[in-house]
Design goal:
heterodimer, A: mainly alpha, B: 424 residues, mainly beta, Maltoporin, Chain A, 16-stranded antiparallel β-barrel
Chain lengths: 70, 424
């Protein structure tokens, strides 16, 4: 529970230094390498690997299909 | 679609610049293709090609399709503990047997292929609201899954913030090669040393386990633009699985309470439901040209598992579109409440038990490097990584012979991937 609160607080702090970003200033954010995730198929492959080898799963998104691996 | 949410989130934030693309974008497919090779020394090997394509089919409407093929071969632990005695087990079909040499970690050979596909539609609902709908399915020889998902994304704050909420439902069908074994029933025909397997076992009285499984996941997320160079995302996922969650092929050794030598083997049994929680935080930040992605995930469920995952990628720009990206991932998990490396004869049978190492306490470290470059108008990238999983080789509660055995052999796996993205 403490970890949950800590992460939430950290997230708020990170978001609190919010600076207005105008539409014409979004060039950097629009780049493929700044997307979350930057490489979709790499993230998809990793998610499958770690889902098959570990007890934890998910986080980034939902859906995407199951398999007989866990 | 697993990544549709995040894809849609960031494309929503970048919306004002999306129109500034190549001419006639409506006729173009953005194609991503990849070939993954995964190799555990002397254990599992997977070859996995994936192709994914996305196209704008209307005003801010996108259609994505993805096809996945998996070829899996090798050997994986069958759940039995190693022993200084020769061990013999029956195969899943129940017709044959295989032996494991003394002091070797018991593995079962297998081979399987899997085909999976998904279709996703992203469509605007209003000026600031967008929805992503997905359908997916997969088939392998003993497993079929069918699922759908729906996500809603809303922009706030002059598009500096995006709220997302989504639901995914999946129906899975398990069809093992033999019949579904009775959970915690004795594996007949399995022999260790000269002792005969006991045929008598308490009938739990619950009848055959369900062969189906339903999984429902809910997601709540916030993505925020922190400044011109920083994006951050926080997601909370709640997942509920209900049905047959046991691995029909995995067993657990029952050992003599004094000598630690195997007496017989029981099929594992897991609870019929599981409630999972995930808190995931990801931040992307660009320095002058280089980019850093850092994520942290906290996972906890009602099986007693708690896990932390930290992931760091640093993309170092080499110029002219070439880059080098080192990657570090660190993972640590606690054991599930019902995880046991073995059971002792004479102790009362627990309600649930599994010796699946994936439910044990362990840490996993992945170190890798990726290289990317522009090629023929698209982007080629290659990565090579090593994953290393280490657990309790000599737990304090090991009995007799088990004290001399490695109850969690270190798992080392190589991950090699080549990808090519282009516009068609």
């Amino acid at each position: 529970m403490r970890i949950t609160i800590a992460v939430f607080v950290l997230f708020c702090l990170a978001g609190c230094s919010l600076q207005p970003v105008r539409p014409w200033e979004r060039g950097i954010l629009a780049q493929k390498k700044m997307q979350i995730p930057a490489d979709k198929l790499e993230a998809f492959s990793d998610e499958h690997i770690y889902f098959s080898k570990e007890a934890a799963s998910g986080g980034q998104g939902i859906g995407g299909g199951g398999c007989g691996c866990n | 679609m697993r990544n549709a949410l995040t894809m849609a989130t960031t494309s929503l934030l970048a919306a004002p610049l999306h129109a500034a693309g190549p001419s006639d974008p409506a006729s173009e497919w953005e194609v991503d293709s990849t070939l993954l090779y995964y190799d555990e020394q002397n254990r599992v090997q997977v070859i996995k090609p994936v192709v994914s394509a996305r196209k704008e089919i209307g005003e801010e409407r996108f259609l994505s399709v993805r096809a996945v093929f998996d070829t899996m071969t090798g050997a994986s632990p069958n759940g039995a503990a190693p022993s200084s005695r020769l061990q013999s087990f029956t195969t899943p079909s129940g017709k044959d047997s295989y032996t494991v040499q003394p002091n070797r970690y018991p593995m079962r050979a297998f081979q399987d292929n899997r085909v999976a596909g998904s279709v996703t539609l992203e469509t605007p609902v209003s000026r600031l609201v967008k929805t992503v709908l997905g359908l997916n399915g997969s088939v392998e020889s003993d497993y079929t899954a069918l699922g759908g998902s729906a996500t809603l994304l809303k922009d706030l704050d002059n598009r500096l913030t995006t709220l997302s909420t989504g639901i995914a439902v999946s129906y899975d069908l398990v069809r093992p090669r033999n019949s579904i074994p009775q959970g915690l029933g004795v594996m007949t025909g399995a022999v260790a040393s000269l002792s005969a397997a006991s045929e008598e076992e308490d009938d739990e009285g619950e009848g055959a386990e369900s062969r189906q499984k339903v999984v429902v996941d809910l997601l709540f997320g916030i993505t925020r633009v922190v400044n011109k160079r920083t994006l951050t995302q926080l997601n909370y996922t709640l997942g509920f699985s209900n049905g047959y969650l046991t691995d029909p092929y995995k067993i657990i050794s029952r050992v003599d309470s004094a000598s630690g030598l195997p007496v017989d083997y029981l099929y594992e049994k897991r609870p019929g439901s599981r409630l999972r929680n995930t808190l995931y935080w990801h931040t992307a930040h660009q320095l002058t040209e280089d980019t850093i992605h850092f994520s942290y995930r906290y996972f906890w469920d009602d099986w007693g598992v708690k896990a932390h995952t930290a992931d760091l990628k640093y993309r170092y720009e080499l110029g002219s579109g070439h880059y080098l990206q080192p990657h570090l991932r660190y993972y640590i998990q606690t054991a599930a409440d019902f995880y046991r490396h073995s059971l002792a004869s004479g102790e009362p049978l627990p309600r649930y038990a599994s010796a699946d190492l994936r439910l044990a306490k362990f840490t996993s470290t992945t170190l890798g490097i990726k290289y990317g470059m522009p090629l023929f108008g698209g982007e080629l990238s290659m990565r090579i990584e090593q994953m290393r999983q280490e657990g309790e080789s000599h737990p304090g509660d090991a009995i007799g012979d088990l004290k001399n055995q490695d109850l969690f052999p270190t798992l080392k796996a190589a991950i090699v991937q080549v990808s090519y993205s282009f516009v068609f």
